[in-house]
Amino acid sequence: MDKNAIVTTLKKNAMLVVLVLVYLFFAILTGGGIFKPSSFNALITQNAYVYILGCGMLMCMLTGGNIDLSCGAFVCLLGSIGGVLMVINGMSTGVSILLMLLISAVYGCGLGFLIAYVNVPPWIATLAGYLAFRGLGTSILRNNSVTGSIAPFPQTFLNVFSGKVFKTADGVMNWPCMIAGVAAAAVVVLAVFMTRNSRLRKGYVADTMRTAVVKSILGGGVILLFMYKLALAGGIPVVLIWVAAVVLIYSFITSRTTIGRHFYVVGGNMEAARLSGVNTRRIMFIAYLNMAILTAISAMTVIARFTAANADAGKNFEMDAISACVVGGVSASGGAGSVLGMVIGATLIGVINLGMFQISLDANYQRVVKGFVLLAAVVFDILSKKKNK
Amino acid sequence: MEIAKALDKQAKLLILDEPTSSLNEEDSRALLDLMLGFKKQGMTMIIISHKLNEVAYVADKITVIRDGTTIETIDNRGPEPVSEERIIKGMVGREMTNRFPKREGVKIGDVMMEVSHWTVHHPLYPERKVVDDVSINVRKGEVVGIYGLMGAGRTELAMSIFGQSYGVNFSGSLKIDGKDVKMKKSESDAIRHKIAYVTEDRKGNGLVLSQSIRVNTSLANLDSIASHTVIDQDREYAVAEEYRGKLSIKTPSVEQLVGNLSGGNQQKVLLAKWMFAEPDIMILDEPTRGIDVGAKYEIYCIINDLAASGKSVIMISSELPEVLGMSDRIYIMNEGKMVGEMKASQATQENIMAAILRSGRGA
Question: Which of B208, B216, B220, B214 is nearest to B259 (CA)?
Fold first, then answer.
């Protein structure tokens, strides 16, 4: 019985197990390089956009495996617009951010309208943006700069999306970071036990004591480890706050709110959802409007990280976001998946990228590996579902 | 067109499934004459049809199939075509057994919903009327049966009443509890007006099979267990458990995925969803299709309970015994039109079939 329980738990959290194994694999291969504080920092700053776009892509995919191909190119376009606003015209950071959000909202509304109310298939509607936006962005860059790159962005803007909170030197313990880590870990542990207690009190099915303890140790432990390493790498990256906020908000929306529930049922059975009074068109509309807004936030973190707007910015972002979702167990046909799964998927891909970079694997082989990881994840997903039946 | 394709392949055996269902009288006759011509050339043909006059006209042998089994085969090679009454006898000639729970304490109240001169056009062929000038009403505490053959327009009628979820170019009026209702083209509007439509196709458009019983049960009335759009998960769980008990849904847990349940239990989850939406008027479309006899009986009991609690129930069914056994009043539809209305006490299988056939011939 005990053995069975362990096997089912492992099966349920298979991607998490894979993540740990891959991590250990690269830890050996890199001689512990991936365990350095700087690697933890890189994992966050280099992959911030995947987490943010992944949340948007998750919402799109939930509605029935629909994707947004245009988000990468839209990052490029928004970057060039931001560059023109802030660098060329010297507009203030606040106004520029609002304008960029406004532009993405307009695009999101248009896109959502076409998909939800004109019934344009999502991948075609977003393919148009994929083709057009990078061209548009590049031409804006070329018209405003001889190098084809607009830089440097003002420090006020960079402060909002990049850098460190209470920065300290590398290798020195950053106490604000460590305290925040302890607090976050404590919140996780408290949440686990409070949910359990309230369920027990009302007589519902709840975690066993052992599951609760394991959950707390794992959840709290990972947070503590992460924050400890970040504390040694100069402190909390500003972008981590954005990522954490987006991930927490979307985690809450998908799991606890009526609108989140509607996304799942629309993807599970669109007709049944409609006949149950769910406004399915509105859900599709919101999915793409939401995607555009998150793309804007993602674009801002990216230009802040490079302190410049480039023609190459956002290349393949859409594929990274889709991969993170698929590897994280989001169903390619819609109706199933979670933010936590996507985060695990994104982290897995991030670890693989970082590991391959640190052992200086040829970039072309890196792509081959990534391709196979994606395929393996989908095959694994399909097979594990079959066994359950 | 399809027939020409089949002929092109030099078919020796031609199976025609309701070949005239989309043709008018004249074209149907032409098609049937064409079949007689093929017969002379030595082709074997099987025609599946619910139009008895057509079958009697072209067929050499008529096999009556009901509930998935062959009832009888009638020879039709005599000089006179077999009479339709003879075929009907085969179609309905079954003794009614005690398959329906007794209605007790039937208290039928005022008219709850009244639909008058309801006309709906086909969404793809707007010139075609799918529901043609239909008027029905249902009282509180009453079970009204709507009987008709496949394609009679019953589902279309029901879905068009339910927030115009089917069809285009609606006309007619809808009164609920004596008040005129102008319903928008919206299912949630229908639910707000306390109407529920329990679909005939539970897997296709009734349930989200990849979700749990809990999620499916709360779906049509999610707002009632949420405050400021945040779902109260404990209450949702309690609601699902409550209906699991009430409808005796057989499952280890309400977290079970609906896709893993048997047909009868799936149907109960579907009913649970709509009962939780707390409607006054429940339209049940083929509520016992594809489920076993035991589960059928349980569903009948649920229907009776609903009526006893003052709800108005409209039950659409293709099974005559079910309509006769469950209804207080029966409407009969054929080809989009209402062709008869009778009290259950006056209705028999024969006079219901006769009403359909009369209208078919008149058209």
Answer: B208
Tell me the CATH number of domain B111-362, given options 3.40.50.720, 3.40.50.300, 3.90.950.20, 3.30.300.30: 3.40.50.300
Q: What's the CA gap between A264 and B229, in Å, rounded?
A: 15
Are A338 and A61 spatial neighbours (Cβ–Cβ below 8 Å)?
no
CA distance B115 to chain A (A): 20
Question: What pLDDT digit, counting tens, does each position of B180-208 carry?
Answer: 888 778 889 999 999 999 999 999 999 99
pLDDT tens-digit profile of B94-109?
444 457 887 766 788 8
What is the share, in percent, of chain B residues with pLDDT greater than 90? Answer: 41
Contacts for A110 with CB less than 8 Å, ≥ 6 apart: none
Per-residue pLDDT tens digits for A141-169: 999 988 889 989 999 999 999 989 888 88
Say what the pLDDT of residue A254 is: 96
**How many domains does chain A fold into?**
1
Whole-model pTM: value is 0.84
C-alpha A55/C-alpha A112 separation (Å) is: 17
Residue with tokens 């919140």: A187
With contacts defined as CB-CB under 8 Å, which chain A residues touch B223? 258
Within an 8 Å CB–CB cutoff, is residue B166 touching chain A? no
Q: The domain at B2-92 falls in which architecture?
A: 3-Layer(aba) Sandwich (3.40)
Nearest CA in chain A to B235: A202
Cβ-count burial of B319 within 10 angstroms (0-12 exposed, 13-18 middle, 19+ buried)?
middle
Give the start-to-end residue ranges of the domains of chain B. 2-92, 111-362
pLDDT of residue B22: 67
